[in-house]
Recover the amino acids of this structure.
């Protein structure tokens, strides 16, 4: 049986100044019990990536940017290059978050460029996908997810997949307190793993980590993590407090 190391990720979104972020990072680090079956990742806002990465040095926690550009440098106001992300001490980047898609109009094509640019820059990429409530109710969830996954990974070969993590974040569950049930999440994760097997090969499907995100809390993390195809979580609100994120990291 393939064992996939769990990835417990906290997305701070547009929260935390330097002092608050370094304090939270240190408090989260203090909660980590040094398991070898799971990794912990924090994604602070761009402005404090360096400070937080620095504060976490030697603590075994990965840091990630919340987006990354496909270009190395140039006239791209508001963007961050892969090398800048690495220079800030990060080894990963989140790409295609639904807030980027919905609020800032990022398309599958643009997200694909970010995926490939981030990979070329040596970053681990967390590619987020997820359907809206409208799409789910219209029975289009699986069609939308398939399109987001295929287009997001267009041109990424099987060998590069070890640097890709997929995050399934149903838009209707983000920040709403409404989590997908463990059955709903497992159903989608199994579908995505099957799809990875069709796009690539079975061993890629077996080894790629698929995270769940959307109102993950200490109260629901155990049942989500018990699902065979859920390999970790991407947490928003509950990652902003060390005690709740600590309980999530230390799921049973
Ligand atoms: P919440 O955990 O606040 O629902 O946010 C999920 C999310 O968007 C993580 O990227």
């Amino acid at each position: 049986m393939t064992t996939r190391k769990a990835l417990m990720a906290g997305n701070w979104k547009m929260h935390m100044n330097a002092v608050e972020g370094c304090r939270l990072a240190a408090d989260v680090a203090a909660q980590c019990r040094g398991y070898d079956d799971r990794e912990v990742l924090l994604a602070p806002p761009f402005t404090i990536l360096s400070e937080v990465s620095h504060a976490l040095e030697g603590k075994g926690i990965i840091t990630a940017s919340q987006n990354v550009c496909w270009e190395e440098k140039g006239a791209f106001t508001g963007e961050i290059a892969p090398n800048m992300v690495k220079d800030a001490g990060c080894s990963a980047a989140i790409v295609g978050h639904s807030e980027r898609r919905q609020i800032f109009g990022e398309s599958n094509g643009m997200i694909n460029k970010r995926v490939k640019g981030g990979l070329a820059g040596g970053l681990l990429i967390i590619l987020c996908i997820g359907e809206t409530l409208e799409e789910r109710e219209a029975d289009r969830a699986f069609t939308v997810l398939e399109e987001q996954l295929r287009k997001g990974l267009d041109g990424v070969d099987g060998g590069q997949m070890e640097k890709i993590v997929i995050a399934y974040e149903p838009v209707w569950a983000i920040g709403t307190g409404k989590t997908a049930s463990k059955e709903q999440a497992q159903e989608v994760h199994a579908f995505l793993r099957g799809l990875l097997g069709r796009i690539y090969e079975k061993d890629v499907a077996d080894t790629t980590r698929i995270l769940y995100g959307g109102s993950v809390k200490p109260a629901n993390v155990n049942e989500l993590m018990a699902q065979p195809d859920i390999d970790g979580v991407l947490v928003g609100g509950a990652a902003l407090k060390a005690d709740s994120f600590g309980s999530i990291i230390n799921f049973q």
Summary: The chain has one domain: 6-249. The first strand starts at residue 6 and ends at 11.
